[in-house]
Design a protein that fits this description.
65% helix, mainly alpha, Arc Repressor Mutant, subunit A
Length: 214
């Protein structure tokens, strides 16, 4: 008996078959995070994420609906990990230094995160998304304001929390996003990881000394 001409059975609707076993929602988020360390957000496509996760691109649509929803989930995850409630106590100068170091750590953990935030805000049609982004980015402002409240001894000059946050984000982000220029200007053969640590310490001293009352 021949089976010639018999059509293959169609797979029913539902979860697409992953090319690698065990590929799920978290694996796709992890793959997207990895790619954001290497590429600007515009290049982190559904296909690129699926390829990195060794999965069917249809899984992105299955779990997230759209590529934008996937990147928003990445932003939420990283934002939650870096969340720091306002301090209840501590030395203002030490707390300020820790805030600066925390921003540098965040920048290193997600190379293109700041650009992702901007692109998500620029394209977000949902008020919920914009409100959530505003909530995440308000937290460091609240921390800087709280540090000034704890400065009962008056060790620090008064500063604008918004300007402080923008300055630290910009200073820390450029060392990563402007890597090609930094490498061009750095001494030949420089260890970029060590250079980054020295840069972070330089920025921290510069800001602390600039805000410290003489």
């Amino acid at each position: 008996m021949t089976t010639r001409g018999k059509k293959p059975a169609r797979r029913g609707k539902g979860r697409p078959t992953a090319s690698g076993s065990g590929v799920g929602r978290d694996a796709l988020i992890c793959a997207a995070r990895d790619l954001l360390q290497e590429l600007p957000p515009a290049q982190v496509t559904s296909t690129a994420v699926a390829r990195r996760a060794n999965a069917d691109p249809a899984l992105v649509r299955y779990y997230f609906g759209t590529r934008d929803n996937l990147l928003f989930e990445v932003a939420k995850q990283i934002g939650a990990e870096s969340s720091r409630p306002p301090p209840d106590e501590g030395e203002p100068l030490e707390l300020l230094a820790e805030m600066i170091h925390s921003t540098f750590r965040f920048t290193r953990s997600a190379k293109h995160m700041q650009r992702l935030m901007i692109e998500e805000l620029n394209s977000a049609g949902s008020a919920e998304v914009r409100d959530k982004m505003r909530e995440w980015n308000r937290e460091p402002l609240s921390n800087y304001e709280r540090i000034q409240e704890l400065d009962e001894a008056g060790e620090l000059n008064e500063f604008d929390a918004l300007f402080m946050h923008l300055a630290v984000v910009g200073i820390s982000d450029f060392f990563v996003s402007g890597g090609p220029l930094v490498e061009l200007l750095a001494p030949p053969g420089a260890d970029m990881s060590e250079l980054g640590k020295r840069y972070e310490e330089f920025v921290t001293r510069m800001l602390i000394d600039g805000l410290r009352k003489r």
